[in-house]
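Re: folding output
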Amino acid sequence: MDTKYCEYCGNKIVADAVICPNCGKQVEELKSSGEKTSPQVIINNTNISGVTGRKCDKWVAILLCIFLGFLGGHKFYEGKGGMGIIYILTCGFLGIGIIIDLIVLLFRNNPYYV
């Protein structure tokens, strides 16, 4: 299979691709059939990656959960101030919430988005 490089993102794509599947930019003009010229397709995706929100490091959140979980340190790090205050008032839901959050954090990708 012949390949080429996208001039915008630099990733390898199929040689006859018109739109880069990685960045969504138009890399080649559309081939028109007949005398009429067809309009060019322009795709402007502002949310290519599909992730939104705040980027958090998994290991920082795990350490905060272990050492400051009863104060909701990991919740404040994620930007969830309301849950952080609840963790302070309940000492991390009597420790059960800390254990559950620790297990959930261990199985998250690094970095994760909140």
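--- second protein (sequence, then structure) ---
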Amino acid sequence: MDVFRIEGPVQLSGSVSINGSKNASLPIMAAAILTAGKSIFSAVPHLSDISVFGQLLGQLGCQVTRSPNGDLCIDSTVIDNPVGEYEIVRKMRASICILGPLLARCGRAKVSMPGGCAIGDRPVDIHLRGLRELGAQIRLENGYIVAEAPKGLAGKDIFLGGPFGSTVLGTANVLMAATLAKGQTVIESAACEPEIADLANCLNKMGAKITGIGSPRLIIEGVRQLQPTEFRVIPDRIEAGTFMVAAAITAGQLRLEHCRLDGMMAVVDRLRNIGVTIDSAGDGCVVARSGPIRPADITTQPFPGFPTDLQAQFMALLALGEGNSVIIEKIFPDRFMHVAELNRMAANLRKEGPVVIIAGVKKMMGAAVMASDLRASAALVLAGLAAEGVTTVNRVYHIDRGYERIEERLNPVGAKISRESI
């Protein structure tokens, strides 16, 4: 098992290129199921989650390869086993994205209940409700979701809102299934995240008829079939936000290439209020901090609100702020396993239900810490960059799920991170 050994404090300075979005790539890979033929997707990052999803598609019958230039090629001519087996699906929640396209193309699907990060309960009931509205017959059987549509799917007006707002993966599942349904489907309270817009744009390039992209009301006119396509995935806004915090927490300056600020305004707003300067530059931006870290109140919300996937990273930053800050988690109220680990590094954090109260400290200290999930591991790496002494982050396989060779990208700009096997 690999660990990160991080020496701090450091001050980052230089340029980092933002990779393609993991959260956009996974449902777009699932969209390839909808059509027979070879689709080519560029800017798909080299991540363990992408590899696992490729294995899942291979199990269905697809052929998944990387071209010499790094493009991801998915040949979905044959889908002869519409089953998402437990051994693969348990590793990643996004595996549930195969349910909708399998049902639409094959008329049946059997997918294990998904796994993923330990960030609290994340039911799939809204996914299933939406697919039932399209005409699917669904039952749970020995830990598997079994869905059948012997008469095909039919368009309908569907409301996808839930107790914590819209569902990103649920929207993706119903959207993909609706592209091949008969008639018109209207999805109300659809997720508005840029990753869903990217999926919809990809589907339209495949021949789908989707309007309202980027809004909470998606209208889909079903078509008889879709065609293979070539498509470039958007940059990863969560990776960009993580590197913005890296510049801020180290009082450094980073130029982020291929960074689209138009999908990050909630993040940019909070950083500027904290005392970080962010200036557009070419196809990216320059992020810097020279003054103190000011306290802030943050509430996670569905897009365009503050993303839950950056909550942990901002907690590490505000732990070094002047004064008291408050973070309220409204998407996954139990997503706070990083609190205890940051406290091991001399942060002063107190959890009260879905709220964490942060009393800023002048410095954090290096310590041995344990990553519990993808974004928590990123927060611990960021804290290690700013902490005095050596920080050892265990279970870095979590960070490899969402950040491509993070140590090789941060070390050239001033980090001191070594990957060691234990």
